[in-house]
Structure formats: structure tokens, C-alpha cells
Amino acid sequence: MIRGINILILLLSLNIELFAADVPVVPYPQQVQQGTATIKLGKSISLKADGIDGAMLKRLADVTKFSTNERAAFPVNLSISGRNKMADALIDAYTTPLKTDWKTRIGKEGYVLVLHKKDQLLVANTEAGLFYGLQTLKQLADAGWNKELVITDWPSLPHRVIFDDISRGPISKVAYIRQQIERMASLKVNGLSFYIEHVIQTRSYPDFAPADGKLTIADVRELDAYAARHHMQLVGSFQSFGHFNNILSLPQYQSMGETSTMISPLDPKAKRFLESVITEMCGAFSSPYFNVNCDETFDLGKGKSKNYVDSVGVARFYADHLKFLYDIVKKNGKKLMMWGDIALQHEEILDMLPKDIVYMTWEYGNPPSYSKWIDPFVKRGLQFMVCPGILNTNRLFPDLAIAKANINGFINEGYKKGTIGAYTTIWDEGGDQLFSEDWYGVYMAAEKSWNVTTDLNDAFDKRYEKAAYGTANGAYVKAIGKLLALRDLPLTYNMTHQIWWQHILPQNGETLILNNKDVPEGLQLVNEAAQLLKLANPVKHLSDLATLKYITDRYKLIFDTRIEVAGLANWYALQEGKPVSSLGPQISSLQKLKSRYVAMEKDFRDKWNSENQPYTLDYALTPYQTRINALNDLEKKLKTLNTSLPAAATIGLNVIESDRYYFNFWLLAGPFKSDTFPAFLYSEDQQANHPPKPGDFAQHNGQQFRWMKYNTDNGGIINKFKDPGSDTYVYAFCTITTQTATQMPAWLGNDTAAELFCNGTKITGGAFTSTGYAALPKERSYHLPLNAGTNYILLKVKNNAPFTFRLGTTESVTNHKHKYTINADQDSHEAD
């Protein structure tokens, strides 16, 4: 009947304008036409079957929480294409101006939504498409949309997955994972996966999962079914090569290790273990894919199979293990997924493995091009997914600025070069991250993976606030922006958690250095963020705001503590040795500070328990308890003073406030037993005699010593090995990056003997001079011939005597772990 109507007359009567509207929907639809007439969408919407059966209508209504009451003011007719000729003809008419075959264009997950005075219609090719159309309808209704509208929508990428690390920090409760599924599905995310090392309890090996933090196979099956109802797949995952220390640390599994962190591909017990565990997990996850991970295998060729690896080569050794895993996964009816980093380091691996593997290629920074992470797969015709990241690792708050650039750039380039999906990762290494601080990044990923043509700009931020919180004042995103400005300050650079784990008072009679130069600016930023949060007023997803407020309050407490401690220490230094009059004001300030930590600890514990299982909570609470105990101890000591004030060191107030930037983070190796300074630079093994990475080995007298990350908690005094013995030497390594070549003054503080090397050349130091602080070792001046770019600094320290190191520059010095930068480009932050 409709086919006989003149299409032009129909369109004129429908009053649909051919221009794109800025609709408050995330992800933004592919094609939008807005009419000029007003409609009464409101909240009184009901769903009506007009080309679907009653069972499908009930499923969709149940999962989207829409009514099926026929008396509702705004009924929306649902239809599957091909089942209702009238509905199909109407959609033909409404989509004619777009000059597209809508049935072909929308594919398996797309839809056409018509909101008009005469017609309220949602049509798709599948139930999944109807589900996603209803998510758009729900966002429009929640936003109070009141204009006629035609949306023709489909995903840019078939696989849109969020990957959450539940192995190296908090592990979510089953109830919270259900909430994640619901909210992600509302954003048209169709996959959820987890980073799993040891937190799923299998029936074949039930003893490696923590008792207070795990998902059982039954839990996985339940969540998998729940995800399916929301048209989402739970993608199976098990770390199957490196990062195996959590399991190998258990006595019953130690023999399976190639090293302490990597399972042995040649060990029969290890192979049986992997086959049993992966087989059981494949049976619990219904997704056709299974991710064996196998990334960052740092110890390849360094373990008990070294001789064998030397004979066949690292690439063959790695590829053979992946073939073993491939056979297990394929036997269970799955398609193998793996991280692509090792194959990119040894590209010949790509030519050794089956061609139907899906490579998960990851990079979390913002380089000018992502070609090095994409092109090797493209030129071989291999399937790949791009894996951007929401940068959370070892941070007090995710770097959402670099995440935005990374998600935007990586997905753009991946789409142009044929990626089959976007696998956005959230890594929780560090221990105390709450998922509710990650949602801004999740919305970015959902937006970009559904509609790659959009930009993550101010318009997105407005739609994000409207969709996520029902607000339109911009305060929430502006507050995030204020917090992210902390990443530019040397004290809070990259928003790393080292400032949180640093002691607030000296421990065990030692000295604490406090550099509070950036505190005033940091306080201003968090105070401005706090004021913006007061204006945010979300009407839904209130836990996001509560968590952002917690992040802001914690930074404020960190800054206030540094001011209080420095003020108390400076006052005490002036009064030392004098008779005590009254310590009441000082004790009162400590008590107030302590009460803030107690209250914030409870707040954090409550937030943790709302999302997570108990596992690793004790670790996450360590900084709170350390700080509360330190304040308690100092308060008790001050209360005992009734004569003159003793030396500051005797009561734990040996605090030095200094604006000098001391190097806190190093790679350390040793201690090496030797009568004299060891002759080797980085290792006696010439293959390893190069600037090290974390986890590399230095060889000395036939022994292997791992280069380990070390971040001092006292502000800059390096004293890792407390009693290494006489005639021993410790090596310390870092890098310094500068834009231009320069002769850079440097000071090395050390009370015994030490040697300093810059880019492999020994540098001669000047005479020892006092630092001006009796508690710090005397310093010797050096001039470092720094090249433009990255420079390698090595210290050899006798008997591991405490040392300090700093540069003589007025330019800002920042660091990302052991990598230091002079006058860093604030538009280019490091990613993990």
C-alpha cells in the first residue's frame, strides 16, 4: 500500500529536514535527520510488537526496562526487517534522502529509529539491532528530547570490547560485573573481557585462586549468560606464558617455572596444567574467541631452558609454545587471540604461526603514527584488533587526557587499515584503582569503536555528561580537567602513585626529604576541582561523582600533610634544645590530620567494598595505615616531652624541606661481591652488557642479578640493601632525556666511594662539599656531557652506602619511573 505513495509528497508531509542534529546520544549515531515539529517523547514510552514475536518483545522489554503497556502515551513499534512490509516501506520512505540501502547498511547490529508525530518505529535486521536502537531511544528519553528525528545507525567496528585487569589489583564482585555489563551494553559495547592470571578457580586446579578474590567457573557461566541477554559476549582469557609469578610463587607449582615469572613451555607438568585450565575456561566462556595473552615474556632465553633456546632461537621457542596453545584452543572450538608485542619484536614469529590467529596489538601513548603497531599484520593479511588503553597503571587517577588521544588516534588508524575491532584495556597494576574512575574512558572507547568518524571533542564531552549523568553544565568534565593538570607538575607528574606511598614522617631514625615547591599550585588545582564537583549535580551514576570527589580529597590531604609536616619540623628545629612550654597546638594539628586519614580510609574501604572482593584490600590500605601509625607514634612521643626538646631524629622529626629535585627512582642490581669496583658496565655477559630494562639480568662471577625497579619512600635517599656486607657494590641506573646537548652540573651525595658513568664514559668528580644538611651525605660535583635525546647514567656504589643524586638546573625535571626528562614536553606524557 505504502509503495504507491509518492515519496516526495510523503517526505514533505513528514517535515524532516536533511541536516545532522546534535543529539544527546553516546555513541553518536552514524546518520541523523532532525525534523522541525515537536513531539512528546517524555518517559511514558511503551514497546509494541509490529513485526516481532511476543517472546522477543518480552526479552527486549525486560532487559531495557521499557514498558509494554499499550495505554502508554508514546508507543514505539518494533519490527525485524522483512517481517512487516508496511514498516519496511515506511523506513524506505524515511531513509530515501540518505541515498542508502538501509537494510544492507545497518547490518547485524544497526537499526533505524523514527520518532515522528505520525510514526514511532524501530526497525532492525536482528534482535541485537533492536536492542541497540532501544539504548538510543532510552538516552533520548532521559535527555528530554522533543524534536522529530530519524536515526540510521550501525557500528564502524564489529568487535567493541572493554578489557579489565582483575588480577593485579581489585577483583570485582559478581554483582558489580553485572552492573558493568548493563552500563557497557547501554553504550553498544558488545564484548567484555578480563585480564586473568590466577583469579578464576577451576575444578582441575582449584588451589591457585585466592580464597578471598576469585571467580568460580559457575560465576563465569552465570555472567556469560547475563552478558548474552545484553547482546554482549564475555571473552575468555588466561595468561599462558609470562606474568605467571602469582601461580609460580605457590610451592606446588614452582617446578613449572622457566623462571620465577614465566611458565616453562618444555615442562610436561606445565603443559598438562595449561591444557586442563584453558580447556575448562573455554567451556565456561561462550565467545568464539579465547585470549592466551603471552605478552611481555621478558625472561625468554634466560631461564632453565636457556641452552635449548640458544639452539633454536627465541622466535622459534616462542612460536612453538603458541602453536601448542593454538591446538588447545582450536580443539575447544575457539579462535586464538594473543597480544602482539613479542611478535612485533621478532616479526619472523608472524610467519611461523597459523594465519587465523587474531593479534591484539597494543600501544597506550599518543605517537604521530601507529603504523609500527599495525602494518606488520596488514602486510601479511593477518587479522588484528587495535588495543588502546585507559592509563591507570601505578596512578592515583587515570591519565584520561592521553587516553583520549590514544583511543582517538589508534582506532582511527586501525579502522583505515582494516582492524576487526577495538579492545580497550584498563590495567589496574598498583592496587587501589576503583573502576568508577574509569567510566569517562569507557564512554570514549564506546563512542569511537561504534562511530569512528566522531572526534572526542567538546561536543562529545557535552553528550557524555548528558548521557552518563543527566547534566548539561560541564562541571564534571571540567573537574576532571583540573585534576589532569596535576600530571604536569614534577611533584605529581603523570599522576603516579609514588607521592602516596612516600612516607610522611621519617622511619627508623632516618631522614625524610620534602620538596613542596609544587604544593601551592597543586592545592589550587584540587580546590578548583572540588568547587566544580559541587556544581556537577548528577542525577544518575552517582558513584562516579563520589569517586572523583574521593580522588580530589585524597590529593588535597596529600598536599595538606606535606605542609603540616614541614611546618612542624621547621618549628621543632628552631625550638630544639629549648625548654618545653606547651606542645598543645602541635599535638592538636597532628590529631586533626590523623582524623582526616581515618575518615578517608573508611570512605575508601566503603567504595572498595561496593565494587570489589576483599582480595588485595589490605595492600591498598597500606598507605593509610602507615600514615595513621606514623602520626600516632609522633603524637605519643610529643606527649612524653616535659623538659627540653631532644634532637629531632630521636622522635622522628628529622625532616628536610628543600626545593632540590632528588632522583627517587632507579633500576638497581647487586650487591656484587668484589675487592674493587667491578670492571663491567652493565653485565659481564656481553649479550646483556647494554643499558638495562626492568627485569634484565646482570651477570657477575657466574651469578645472575636481576635489574629491579626501586623507588625510595624518603624523598631521595637511596638505601635499598641495608646490610650487603663489606666489599660489595651496588649498581644504580637511570636515563636522562634532554632536547639539546649540554654540559649539565650534577651532584652525587655519598659518604664512601662511588663511580659515575654517563653514556658509558666514567666522569671525574670534584671535591666533596657539604650539602648544608648534616643528615645528608656529602656531595661531589660532576659535569655530565649530555647528548640531545636519551642519556644513560650508571652509578657504582661501594657497600651500598646511602646516596643522593640531583641535577643543577633551573628547568623542571620530571620522571616516569627511572626515566628522567629535563623540561619535558607537557603535550607528550609517557604511557605504560
From TrEMBL:
EC category name: hydrolase
Entry-linked InterPro entries: Beta_hexosaminidase_sua/sub, GH, Glyco_hydro_20_cat, Hex-like_dom2, HEX_bac_N
Domain Beta-hexosaminidase bacterial type N-terminal: 24-154
A GO CC term assigned to this protein in UniProt: membrane
Alphabetized UniProt keyword annotations: Glycosidase, Hydrolase
MF-aspect GO terms: beta-N-acetylhexosaminidase activity
Active site: 296 (proton donor)
GO biological process terms on file: carbohydrate metabolic process; glycosaminoglycan metabolic process
Domain of life: Bacteria
Domain Glycoside hydrolase family 20 catalytic: 158-388
A Pfam family the protein falls into: Glyco_hydro_20
EC number in record: 3.2.1.52
Catalytic reaction(s) noted: Hydrolysis of terminal non-reducing N-acetyl-D-hexosamine residues in N-acetyl-beta-D-hexosaminides
Record family assignment: Belongs to the glycosyl hydrolase 20 family.
Entries under PANTHER family matching the protein: BETA-HEXOSAMINIDASE (PTHR22600), BETA-N-ACETYLHEXOSAMINIDASE (PTHR22600:SF57)
Protein name as annotated: beta-N-acetylhexosaminidase
Organism: Chitinophaga cymbidii
